[in-house]
Write the structure tokens for this entry.
Amino acid sequence: MNIFRLAGDMTHLASVLVLLLKIHTIKSCAGISLKTQELYALVFATRYLDLFTDYISLYNTLMKLIFLVSSFSIVWYIRHHKIVRRSYDKDQDTFRHYFLVLPCFLLALVINEKFTVKEIMWTFSLYLEAVAILPQLVLLQRTRNIDNLTGQYVFLLGAYRSLYILNWIYRYFTEPHYVHWITWISGLVQTLLYADFFYYYFQSWKNNVKLELPA
Amino acid sequence: YQAPPVKDEL
């Protein structure tokens, strides 16, 4: 494992922890899109089917379990926790799941490395992860005023994606036969979706003002 | 022939 991959995994982990911390301590999920969180839970559930079939390393298994448990906990908190759920702004978070899930699934049926259930689910999870942040970005645009933790959450997710790209470049030059078009293209699309957010995030950071997105 | 790398990423 290279340093980019490790740093990428750690920022990914940090993003989830920031979110859980916010929900757990402030007992609020204001500004968080339940739609995005549900999509991430679906992403992990479909991608980590190999937990049952392949063993890669203890690190790999543990991280997969952490992402599965944390994503489903976040969804549970927002939907069912008696205090947290009251802060969920249902009327603003209107993105439709199937609008993203269906095209990703159809694309996975057509473009995949192998036509098996496991492969198609894995490919589907990559396509879905690429666009799963969209409901969150739409919600941020709508509410415009973003609290620090939500801003940091999205920033850490974007950092994780950028580090994964550096990891792929590194692996391409250091490992033989390391070519994964599906992973790369969907990963690139995913990272580009953050570009706009990043721009405003850095602007607010540079000028030392509260992050606010233009309408 | 070399098998493709395992999917060891998260």
About this structure: The first helix of chain A runs from residue 3 to 26. Chain A is about 70% helix and 0% strand.
